[in-house]
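Sequence, please.
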């Protein structure tokens, strides 16, 4: 299936090639690329772990989360280890990944080797049937279809609810994936930094910009290495995959809280439709590849698995609880803070608290070692810690002390949280409800500390996203419980209500920031397909670095103009100071005004950050673009072979051949 999607994407590229980046036809290629990324993610993080970890009697959503956690935590451990040893490549990745999955399955009491061998035999038999015996293959597919139909009839309680769930998921994926379908650029400034780190991690370089949680970067780089996908395409379409995982976590949590399909579907609907009212910035963040959103997903999944472990004490649940805690910490530690609040509430409210306490301490301890050992080793080797990665109670997050009475009305804005908690507690009390309530209350306190003049334990801007997530789960489960007690026509009524609300208040997909023109991204994609790897160099701004890494060489625009002054460009004996036979120079015909400018940042033109100084400063950027344009025209007047590689209304990319004797 992935091969068919890949072939269709290449056909779409051939059909659209030559058109500008703004042509709507490119959305077809982007859509197929998104399917390729989603399918590859499912194969690497769902299908492969499922071979070692049987599903059992759990819901499909919870099983998918378990497999993703197993795959992600294994990758986190293996990638860091291989990168330290300078052995990070496709073969070592697959060997370490499978060995780690087998080890965890063995610890949990499974039969990893026999299950893997059985899966290999089944796959080999399926391949032989497809090649040698077409009737047998048709019969096998027919049996699969009959089994799927039987499960559909038994497991789907209402076609209306299935329609509602499918519609909500489609709405969620569409709103969070539209930016990547329509635009080639990444959606936020942080995404460019994460892409560079992913590329460097793929090359075996750990912590190039000081210590930072690399859980998301490890997952993306492993997927890129393991299935030979372009890391830029994965980063571009990762928000669609991440929000799908978040929907799975919300659905599984709502399902367990309310024990009704309606609870999970309503939670997903609130994420798709209502998040822009609760936390508009949170909806915008979900169109970009950012670690916090993955950490929120792991936090929610971790509460489910911790609840299962505390209630039943199963070894598999213990392994899952530990691995999800390690993965959450290694992705974004703020998620661990809120996980700890909810996990403590679950542990305290469970009747078997004394029996599970020692096991809980063991789980937390092993998970802490799993998550923290890369940081400990990095510190021992002299790596510094990135400031934003470790601050928990920084001074700049402490609000000024104010009178409690004027500040109290701002806290009343969150009374809906209290109402949702009370409604859920009255509808179905239990340890997981206590955990979700404690997490939501902790996030609410973190966002409300400023009204009391107290420092917040977590950045309030980030805490509000966890607050919205907790509110979504509690309200979705509570309302789902109430709806589920109505008559059977309640499912159809729910579909009607959801449809009417979406029509009356249409959901507009969030659009990300802009730090580069789409035409530049398309031109560099064409270059990667045209030239031999590492035989070409591009002169461009810093935001193109992540796209070029691993395929060519990047030359900073401001530095190139210093190394190759304009007064020498017209000299016939002068050639650019590069060592590759092909040189591309990106010129903005209309200088881009970035989403964040130096004026917004309050930085002077001689700012220490070179990106701010040269590219986010509008006047400085326009000056650089004018200089490089005149440089290209002057160079072309005395050097044959210069041609336009790509051009649209905003940018032009010049191709310059560099003779061997001048490299």
């Amino acid at each position: 299936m992935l091969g068919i999607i890949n072939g269709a994407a290449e056909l779409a590229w051939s059909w659209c090639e030559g058109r500008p980046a703004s042509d709507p036809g490119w959305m077809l290629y982007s859509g197929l690329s998104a399917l390729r990324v989603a399918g590859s993610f499912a194969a690497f993080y769902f299908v492969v772990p499922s071979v070692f970890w049987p599903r059992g009697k759990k819901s499909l959503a919870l099983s998918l989360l378990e497999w993703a956690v197993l795959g992600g935590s294994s990758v986190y451990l293996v990638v860091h280890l291989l990168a330290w040893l300078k052995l990070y490549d496709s073969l070592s990745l697959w060997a370490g990944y499978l060995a780690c999955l087998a080890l965890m399955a063995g610890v949990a009491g499974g039969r990893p080797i026999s299950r893997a061998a059985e899966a290999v035999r089944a796959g080999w038999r399926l391949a032989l049937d497809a090649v040698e015996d077409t009737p047998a293959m048709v019969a096998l597919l027919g049996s699969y279809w009959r089994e799927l139909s039987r499960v559909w009839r038994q497991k789907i309680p209402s076609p209306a609810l299935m329609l509602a769930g499918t519609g909500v998921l489609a709405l969620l994926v569409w709103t969070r994936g539209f930016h990547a379908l329509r635009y080639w650029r990444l959606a936020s400034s942080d995404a460019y930094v994460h892409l560079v780190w992913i590329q460097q991690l793929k090359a075996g370089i750990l912590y190039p910009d000081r210590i930072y949680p690399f859980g998301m970067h490890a997952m993306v780089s492993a997927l890129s290495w393991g299935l030979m996908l372009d890391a830029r395409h994965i980063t571009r379409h990762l928000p669609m995959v991440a929000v799908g995982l978040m929907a799975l976590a919300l659905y599984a949590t709502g399902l367990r809280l309310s024990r009704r399909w309606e609870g999970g579907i309503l939670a997903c609907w609130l994420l798709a439709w209502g998040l822009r009212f609760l936390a508009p910035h949170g909806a915008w963040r979900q169109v970009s590849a950012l670690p916090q959103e993955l950490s929120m997903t792991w936090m929610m999944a971790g509460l489910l698995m911790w609840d299962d472990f505390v209630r039943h004490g199963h070894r598999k649940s213990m392994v899952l609880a530990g691995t999800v805690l390690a993965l959450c910490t290694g992705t974004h530690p703020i998620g661990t803070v809120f996980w700890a609040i909810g996990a403590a509430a679950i542990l305290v409210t469970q009747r078997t608290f004394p029996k599970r306490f020692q096991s809980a301490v063991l789980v937390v301890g092993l998970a802490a070692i799993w998550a923290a050992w890369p940081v400990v080793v990095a510190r021992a080797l002299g790596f510094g810690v990135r400031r934003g990665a470790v601050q928990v109670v920084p001074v700049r997050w402490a609000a000024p002390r104010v009178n409690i009475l004027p500040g109290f009305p701002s806290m009343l804005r969150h009374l809906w949280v209290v109402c949702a908690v009370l409604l859920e507690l009255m509808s179905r009390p239990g340890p997981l409800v206590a955990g979700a309530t404690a997490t939501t209350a902790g996030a609410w306190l973190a966002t409300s500390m400023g009204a009391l003049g107290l420092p917040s334990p977590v950045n309030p801007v980030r805490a509000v996203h966890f607050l919205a997530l907790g509110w979504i789960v509690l309200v979705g489960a509570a309302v789902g419980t109430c709806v589920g007690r109505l008559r059977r026509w309640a499912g159809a009524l729910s579909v009607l209500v959801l449809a009417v609300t979406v029509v009356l208040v249409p959901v507009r997909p969030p659009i990300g920031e802009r730090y580069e023109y789409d035409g530049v991204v398309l031109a560099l994609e064409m270059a990667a397909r045209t030239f031999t790897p590492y035989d070409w160099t591009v002169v461009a701004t810093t935001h193109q670095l992540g796209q070029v890494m691993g395929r060519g060489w990047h030359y900073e625009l401001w530095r190139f103009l210093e190394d190759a002054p304009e007064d020498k460009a017209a000299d016939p004996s002068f050639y650019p100071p590069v060592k590759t036979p092909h040189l591309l120079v990106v010129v903005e015909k209309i200088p881009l005004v970035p989403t964040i400018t130096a004026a917004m940042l309050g930085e002077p033109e001689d700012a220490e950050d070179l990106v701010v100084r040269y590219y986010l400063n509008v006047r400085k950027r326009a000056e650089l673009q004018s200089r490089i344009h005149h440089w290209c025209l002057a160079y072309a007047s005395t050097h044959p072979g210069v041609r336009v590689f790509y051009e649209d209304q905003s940018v032009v990319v010049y191709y310059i051949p560099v003779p061997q004797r001048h490299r």
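Confidence is low (pLDDT under 50) at residues 390-411.
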